[in-house]
Write a structure and sequence with these properties.
376 residues; alpha/beta; Trna Endonuclease, Chain: A, domain 1; 17 helices; 6 strands; 55% helix
Amino acid sequence: MTRTPPPPRRPRAARPPKAPVHATAPAAAAAGVADASLAGDIQRLIDSARQRVAAAVNAELTLLYWQVGTRIRQDVLGAQRAGYGATVVAGLARQLTAAYGRGWSEKQLWHCLRAAETFPDEATLSALRRALSWTHIKTLMYVDDALKRDFYIQLCRLEGWSVRQLQERMQSLLYERSAISRQPQATVEHALQALRHDERPSPALLLKDPYVLDFLGLNDRYLERDLEDAILRELEQFLLELGSGFSFVARQKRVQIDDDDFYIDLLFYNRKLKRLVAVELKIGDFRPEHKGQMELYLRWLARHEQEVGENPPLGIILCTGKKQEQIELLELDKSGIHVAEYLTVLPPREALQARLQQAIAAARQRLLPPSPEDTE
């Protein structure tokens, strides 16, 4: 018996590919996968809480160290016997280490004592511990000059320096190179007091003299164009040397006055000072005619570029040398002009420090009122 073969099957139509299915929040949760935005929000909450806890722990530890130092100081000062302090600290360190383990060495107790001696007022210490870490304070409290120490404290607080940044700025003699260091003590104190309350630095706190440009890699012979090109190649380093708040605006900024064209070498903006800053680069010593050139630029910028709410533009003339009496007679500060030297080769730190201390002493001496003997 012959079987009839079955009819051929019709081929099935190809199904279109399935579109990818994106899990909704409930589906993702059922699969054990958290929604990305939810996880991000929770992580930010955890990180924020950790930062607050770390800040609170640091503040309490700093207060504890100060209180320990204050108590030791009371005992040592009360005894008034030579060598008594070293004996007390050594014995106390052994007792505390036996009771609490590491963290209470003899060296640490001397740090506590130094903190109490440097900041005897608890209110001052309380303000510091809310803004700076114990490591910051430990670095600052060994600065003997009170004005210099306050300078670093206020700028560190304002600009949020890390401990490493603080140490680098101290090593680079930032205070000695600041324009404010050449002012009378009362002027420096007033500027720091204003910064402490208003958090608005004066130009003298941010401007420097000299500027150290050793990172440019220039040889002994170069032109102004070479200096400008090198600065733009190393713009990030140059901005760091200029100081906090500077941002680059333009190179060879064109200034049109009547039918004449002039060009500002470099133009910056400082958000802390809220003003444009024109920089002119000079090879050689400062000359009086440089003042007229910069005044022209500053007045043009004030008329055509200054925005509502900004302060008047500031000018910086960088040169390889200057004569101080010329600077004083020209009264450049009244025109908003700062003249500073720049160094393309960094001298030994000791030599630079001695030079700066001499310049500071000479500047402050010139600002003192004449004595009765001088007026006779």
